[in-house]
Amino acid sequence: MSSTTCVVVWVSCGSKLENITTTTHQKSVVKCSNNNNDKIRFTSISSAAVAAASVPSRSSEEKVYEVVLKQAALVREQRKRRTIEIDDDFMTNLHLLNAAYDRCGQVCAEYAKTFFLGTQLMTEERRKAIWAIYVWCRRTDELVDGPNASHITPTALDRWEQRLNDVFQGRPYDMFDAALSHTVSNYPVDIQPFKDMIEGMRMDLRKSRYNNFDELYLYCYYVAGTVGLMSVPVMGIAPDSNSSTETIYNAALALGIANQLTNILRDVGEDARRGRIYLPQDELAQAGLSEEDIFNGKVTDKWRNFMKGQIKRARIFFDEAEKGVSELNSASRWPVWASLLLYRQILDSIEANDYNNFTKRAYVGQAKKLFSLPAAYAKAFLGPPKLTKMIMR
Amino acid sequence: MLWIELSITFHSMNSFIKKTMTIFSLQSQFLSCKIPQIPSHSKATIFRENTNQQFTLSGVSFLKPRITLCYSSKDGDNTPSESSNFCIIEGPETVQDFVQMQLQEIQDNIKSRRNKIFLLMEEVRRLRVQQRLKSLRKVVNEEGEEETNEMPEIPSSIPFLPHVTPKTLKKLYTTSISFMSGIIVFGGIIAPTLELKLGIGGTSYEDFIRSVHLPLQLSQVDPIVASFSGGAVGVISVLMLIEASNVEQQEKKRCKYCHGTGYLACARCSASGVCLNIDPISVSSTSTKPLQVPTTKRCGNCSGSGKVMCPTCLCTGMMMASEHDLRIDPFD
User: Fold this and answer.
1) Where are the membrane-spanning stretches (chain A) (predicted)?
2) pTM of the model
C-alpha cells in the first residue's frame, strides 16, 4: 500500500484499561519540572536527525510538540468521564452496537491481518476500541487513497470533518461512526488528532513532493503520529510509571513517525509508480539523486548511501519510541513491543534487499514474525535490556 | 447513417455536455434542484429531425422520440456552483435536499439526468475505443507482434492456480487429457499386467482387508461399482471446491464495509427508520396530565429507510465502482 496509509502503525498498542486520568494527574504535579528537559531532549534528537543545519523559526517538530503537550494536558484535566448527550438509540441498543463492533473487527481482519492478530493480545474492551478507531482512520484514508479517490473534493473532506464533530458529540451518522462514538465516550480520546488526520488527507490531495524533512515530518505526524496519540488513551499508562504524560505521548508520536518513515522507505517504488515521492527533495539533491533516478528505479551506490542515512534516521525514532513503551500498562506492552520489533525488522529487510525498494518488497517472513512475539513478551514482562538482547540474538 | 445523425446531435450537445463535469457530478440530484424548464426551440428542432429512426446501442434499443423528449428538458440545471457543491459524503442535512420537490419535478429531473448519463456513457465508450486502438498500435510497434490484451486478468476458478489466460487454458486441456488417459491406461492395462495389488508383497485385496481388520464385505466390492464410486466422489468434491473458490472470488469483489449491500445502518434511528420525538417536558406541573407515551417521527438522517450510504463503495456494494452498475447503466 502507499505511504499514506496509517494501517501498519496499528500493529502497536496495548491492552489493559486503567484509569489513567487520576494517576497521571498525580504524576503531573510532581513531574512538571521535567517538561523543559523533555522538550530540550526531544528537539535535540530530532534536529540531530535532520540533515539540514538550519531550523526554521517554528519547525514542524515544535508545532507537533505543542499538540502533544496539549493532549497530555487534556488528559490531566479530564478527571471524570466525558458526559456526552447520547440521544441516539444506537448507542444504547447493545445488540446493534455489538454488531457494529463486530463489523469493525471484520474490516480490520480483512485489511490489516498482522495488526488484527496483534489486537488479539489486548483485552476485549480495548480491542473493540482500537478496531473502531482503526476503521475510522481507514475510511478516512480511503477517501483520498481508495477506489473512489478520484471523486473526492475538499468539500467532501469538510463534510467528513463535520461528521467527525457529530461523532464526538454523540450523534453518529452510520454504524461505524456509532462504534467510534461509543469508544470516545468510554475512553478519554481527544478530537484533535482525528482532525489532524483529516488535515493530513487534505495535504495529500495537494502535495506529492516534500521539500525538506520538516515538511515530511509534519505529514508523518498527520497521518501516523496522530494514530499514536489516539491510541495512548485506550492503552492506558501504567499506574507505577515514573514518566510524565508528555514523555509517553512523545514516545507514541515517535513510534507513529517511525512507522510512517518505514512505510515510506519500503514503498519508494510503489509510490513512484503513482507519481509520488515522499523523500525530502533537499536530501535527495544533497545525495546527488534526482527524480529520474527514482523513477528509473536503479540501485546505485549513491542510492545506497542515501538509504543508509534514511534508515538510520528511522531507527533513531524507533529508539525514541522504545523509551515510552515500558511506561504503558503492563498488558499493553506486549502488543506494542511486538509491533515495534516487527516494524524495525522491515528496515533490516530493506537492507537485506540491498536497498532495492523499487522492485523488491521488504517484508518480514512468518517465521520472523512469530519469533518476535516471544522476544516482545520478554521485553514487556522481563524488562532488563541485556536479557532481551540475548534472546533477540 | 445512424452514427452520423448521432454525431450531429453530439456536436450540438457539446456545449451542453461540457457543463457536466464528471459522471458522479450527475448525482447532483442530491443537491437542491431547480425546476427543469423547456429550453429554446432551436435545440428541440434539431432533434425532431431524428425522431423517425430507431437505433440500438450496445444491445439496448429505444425509440428516438423518447430521447427528443428527454433532450427537451432543461439542459443547464447543472450550474457550476451546484456541480462543485456536490460531494460524495452524505451528511445529516443533505438528505433533505430533494424533499421540497413535487412528483412531476422529480420525474423530470430524473429524466434529464438520465440523459446526461447516457451521453457521457457514450463519450466514454468512444474514448475507450480510441484508447484501445492507440494502445494496440503502440504495443504492435514496440513488440512487433499483435497482442490484444483487452481482457482483464481472469482469476482461476481452481484454487491455488495463478491467473488464467487462453494460453494457459490450452495447457490445462492438454495436461488434464494426458493425465486422464494416463490413468485409464494405467488402470486398464499396466496394473493388471504387472499384477499390481494393494497389499504389500503381492497379497490380494481380500488378504489386505483381512489384515487391517476391516469388514470382509469390502473385499467383495464389484470393480465397476468401485470405479463409479471413486469417480463420483472425485467429481463431487471438485465441484464443491470450485464453488467455494468462486464464492471466495465474488466475496473479494464485495465492499467490505457494507458487505455488498451498499448501505450501512443509520445510527440515528438504529436502523429502524423512526426516531423518538424528544420534546422538553415542562416542569411546571399546573396540570396533572400523566406523561404521554413518546411519539415517533421519521428519522431525518435516513429519511425513514434505516440505511445510509456507504461512503467507501458509494452504494455500489463493490470494492471498485465499476461501469456495470445501475447508476451508470440506468436504462433498466
Assistant:
1) 216-238
2) 0.64
